TrEMBL record:
Domain Cationic amino acid transporter C-terminal: 512-555
A Pfam family reported for this protein in Swiss-Prot or TrEMBL: AA_permease_C
InterPro entries per UniProt: AA/rel_permease1, CAT_C
Protein name in UniProt: Amino acid transporter
Keyword Manganese: no
Superkingdom assignment: Bacteria
Length: 564
């Protein structure tokens, strides 16, 4: 059984399956289209909302965090690019894991990608709803509050009102109480849901359903609009910068800066979604690697510039707001620009929603071809040339939770799934180098021999912790073993992984850049809360139940092995 769990697909076999099962997809995307889709995915809810909270916690130094996270993503993007040039099919990290590590790992990655795409789209849809409601209010149009939020906000506000009184409520609690009190009722149960989040998901799903060409055109237009406004924010905001706002640069130290890891990383999620359109590219082996690197560099520069402008225009303590870009211009009295940004943010977040909604069905389509999901998921619409059934299911999977769930539940959870996928893709490149698969790659991660560098880096890291991490070491000594396992197990895994990679780098001359991708992503993972990991492990457990109940016995590789 163990051999069957880790059976691998050859590149030739995957290409053969994609040609047979995906011949109906329309090949129309070039480099410019792919870069546009990548920017559409990356420059979305992150730059228009989570960047404010990250700046509030870390101060102007969050700009360095964006550089650090972009640095981590470059190593991962190079690894994705090598896989994309080797296996140019729509499965993204799922397919790459199938080639490198076998079927069980491929399933686990495919299941984790549901978190990255479907669950992150729930966040994006809810964020879109908030901006859309604010935009309408700016034009004097009000939607009943019970139609604009998750029921948990309202019930929590009602419970808080009973404790402290309505006069002591503010912000979302005041709005939530209004929703609770004005909502229609069935048997004294208030009917509250986020209608705009559901409607935008349905609209975007319809757009994705009717064709890649229509999706590409819509994405290109929205990207041009939002990049224009972001450049206007950068160059217009420069005139309002007060250098004293950049002092202190890191008011809450490294702890404050790193507390924004999930929010900042969420802002970069999406560059890998380009790889899911591989079968709709004119020349995927040439264009996918270029597009991944181009869009990542462009977005990193935009993020760093935006962060410096925001924290220069107002003090970082003012930025804990849901619409920081619009807020800073209101703060300096430039209300016209704030209004333009409010409208543009709705367009920007719509484009991110579009790309994620485009990516998820193509993952399921590829898993279906391999027999791990029902054959319906690989059905291509004869007229629209899109994975029709998978697209409709994705619409339901995103729209229904977006109607009823709180946004903050999903953000960190999304990052966990993405880090997991990124690490396996980087590790997959090491396997490709070791097994000789890299010879088939038309693009390769630049090779720097890590034979000695990885081990020397490990020793230097230990020395730095010993001399400069005395407070951290003291905290650990005051914890019992159960607390260490609960709160710091990932830190232990990080150092053990680094040690193991040091040994194997010495023995096998591992390429340095994929190793750095693994270590940086694993370090960023260790900064996320333990509760997110518990939920993620439960998610993986549920996925394994589905795999062993259906995927294992229906796998094409299993049927081929049984036939022999």
């Amino acid at each position: 059984m163990a051999n069957r769990l880790f059976r691998k697909k050859s590149v030739e076999q995957i290409m053969r399956d994609s040609e047979h099962g995906g011949s109906g997809l329309a090949k129309i995307l070039g480099v410019r289209d792919l870069v546009s889709l990548g920017i559409a995915a990356i420059v979305g809810a992150g730059i228009f909302s989570t960047i404010g909270l990250a700046s509030f916690n870390g101060g102007p130094a969050v700009s360095l965090l964006f550089v650090f996270v972009a640095f981590a993503c470059v190593f991962t993007a190079l690894s994705y690019a090598q896989f994309a040039s080797t296996v140019p099919v729509s499965g993204s990290a799922y397919t790459y894991a199938y080639v490198a590590f076998g079927e069980l790992f491929a399933w686990i990655i495919g299941w984790a990608l549901v978190l990255e795409y479907a669950v992150s789209n729930m966040v994006v849809a809810i964020s879109w709803s908030q901006y859309f409601v604010s935009m309408l209010e700016g034009f004097g149009i009000s939607i009943p509050k019970w139609l604009t939020m998750a029921p948990a906000y309202a019930t929590e506000a009602h419970a808080k009102m009973l404790e402290v009184g309505a006069a002591n409520l503010s912000g979302i609690d005041r709005i939530g109480l209004q929703a609770y009190e004005t909502a229609p009722r069935i048997a004294d149960f208030p009917i509250i849901f986020d209608l705009p989040a559901g409607l935008i998901t349905v609209f975007v799903t319809w757009l994705v359903y009717i064709g890649i060409k229509e999706s590409q055109r819509a994405s290109n237009i929205m990207v041009m609009i939002k990049i224009g406004v972001i450049l206007a924010v950068i160059f217009g905001g420069m005139f309002f910068i007060k250098p004293e706002n950049w002092t202190p640069f890191a008011p809450n130290g490294m702890e404050g800066v790193l507390s924004g890891v999930a929010a900042v990383f969420f802002a970069f999620i999406g560059f890998d979604s380009i790889s899911t359109t591989a079968e709709e590219c004119k020349n995927p082996q040439r264009d996918l690697p270029k597009a991944m690197i181009y869009c990542l560099v462009i977005c990193a520069v935009l993020y760093v510039a935006i962060t410096l402008v925001l924290t220069g225009m107002v003090n970082y303590t003012e930025l804990n707001v849901k619409d920081p870009l619009a807020y800073v211009f209101q703060y300096v009295g430039f209300d016209q620009m704030a209004g333009i940004i409010s409208v543009t943010s709705v367009i920007a977040i719509t484009s991110a929603l579009l790309v994620f909604q485009l990516a998820q069905p193509r993952i399921w389509m590829t898993m279906s071809r391999d027999g791990l999901l029902s054959k319906r998921f690989s059905k291509i619409h004869p007229k629209y040339k899109t994975p029709s059934y998978a697209t409709i299911v994705t619409g339901f999977v995103v729209a229904i939770p977006a109607l009823f769930m709180k946004m903050d539940f999903f953000v960190d959870l999304t990052s966990v799934g993405t880090f997991f996928a990124f690490i396996l893709v980087c590790a997959g490149v090491l396997y490709m180098d070791y097994s000789g698969l890299s010879k088939k790659s038309k693009f390769k991660v630049p090779y720097i021999n890590g034979k000695y560098i990885v081990g020397i880096g490990f020793i230097v890291g230990i020395i730095l912790v010993y001399f400069y991490g005395s407070e951290t070491v003291a905290d650990w000594t005051n914890m019992d073993s159960s607390q260490i396992i609960l709160h710091h197990s990932l830190v232990i895994i990080f150092w053990l992984t680094w040690l193991i990679l040091s040994i194997y780098s010495y023995k096998l001359n591992f390429s340095l850049l994929p190793v750095m991708g693994i270590l940086i992503n694993l370090y960023l993972m260790s900064e996320l809360g333990a509760s997110n990991w518990i939920i993620f492990l439960l998610w993986l457990a549920a996925g394994l139940v589905i795999y062993f109940a259906y995927g294992y016995k229906n796998s094409k590789l299993n049927k081929e092995a049984t036939a022999e």
